[in-house]
From TrEMBL:
InterPro entries: NagB/RpiA_transferase-like, Ribose5P_isomerase_typA_subgr, Ribose5P_isomerase_type_A. Keywords: Isomerase. The active site is at residue 104. The gene is rpiA. GO terms for cellular component: cytosol. Its EC number is 5.3.1.6. Gene3D superfamilies: 3.30.70.260, 3.40.50.1360. It comes from Pseudofulvimonas gallinarii. This is Ribose-5-phosphate isomerase A. Catalyzes the reversible conversion of ribose-5-phosphate to ribulose 5-phosphate. GO terms for biological process: D-ribose metabolic process; pentose-phosphate shunt, non-oxidative branch. It catalyses: aldehydo-D-ribose 5-phosphate = D-ribulose 5-phosphate.
Length: 215
């Protein structure tokens, strides 16, 4: 296993220790979260189940014998565990490389604690090296792209990708995100935007960075 994979696994294993017995666990999406799901499978008899941020995670959770609930029917989610594409020193994140940003943001909003699990390559001083994903209503793609150009980014349509919600993704290149909350607010106000993959207003409460089998 390479260093990045070791780091992802170490962070995921550490997050398992935060799972409350008998609870419904919020589960994110991606290769780091896959390690978390494998660990959750070992303790599936100690939890009630999960709420999931994507069809891919739902399928894996069910394969591993973990009950997946509709968020609308769940009262409390003590813990949400998810990866990120970038993380700055204030625990602000870029997410959505796996196109699951909207459901991820919804579960993060509901959860009492949002724990982000990453490998060291994701840690940056200023967000924006990773293109910022924006989920858009398909008919608004060109309008939103023009507005994003005005905000100083270079939007590129992630052609062929349809989100679990039936929408499209624009990846915004060449941003230096020095004020993540302000940019999140500005992009949220563009008509046709469903979700921007900046997690600043509701950022991670805790970030676990796995490296060399340690945290
Ligand atoms: O936001 C995400 C999916 O929409 C993922 O958390 C992000 O892309 C990181 O994925 P990985 O753990 O595979 O690096």
């Amino acid at each position: 296993m390479n260093d990045a994979e070791n780091g992802k696994r170490a962070a995921a294993e550490r997050a398992l220790a935060l799972v409350e017995p008998g609870s419904v666990v919020g589960v994110g999406t991606g290769s780091t979260v896959r390690w978390f799901i494998e660990g959750l499978a070992r303790m599936r008899h100690d939890i009630e189940g999960a709420v999931s941020s994507s069809e891919a995670s739902t399928a894996l959770l069910r394969e591993r014998g973990i009950a997946v609930y509709d968020l609308n029917g769940v009262g409390e989610i003590p813990l949400y565990v998810d990866g990120a594409d970038e993380c700055d020193g204030s625990r602000c994140l870029i997410k959505g490389g796996g196109a699951a940003l909207t459901r991820e943001k919804i579960i993060a909003a509901v959860a009492r604690e949002f724990v982000c699990i990453i490998d060291p390559a994701k840690r940056v001083d200023v967000l924006g090296r990773f293109p910022l994903p924006v989920e858009v209503i398909p008919m608004a793609r060109s309008h939103v792209a023009r507005e994003l150009l005005d905000l100083g980014g270079q939007p590129v349509w992630r052609e062929g990708v349809v989100t679990d919600n039936g929408n499209w993704i624009l990846d915004v290149h060449h941003l230096q995100i020095t004020d993540p909350e302000a940019l999140e607010t500005a992009i949220n106000q563009i008509v046709g935007v469903v979700t921007v993959g900046l997690f600043a207003r509701r950022r991670a409460d805790r970030v676990l960075i796995g490296a060399d089998g340690e945290i």
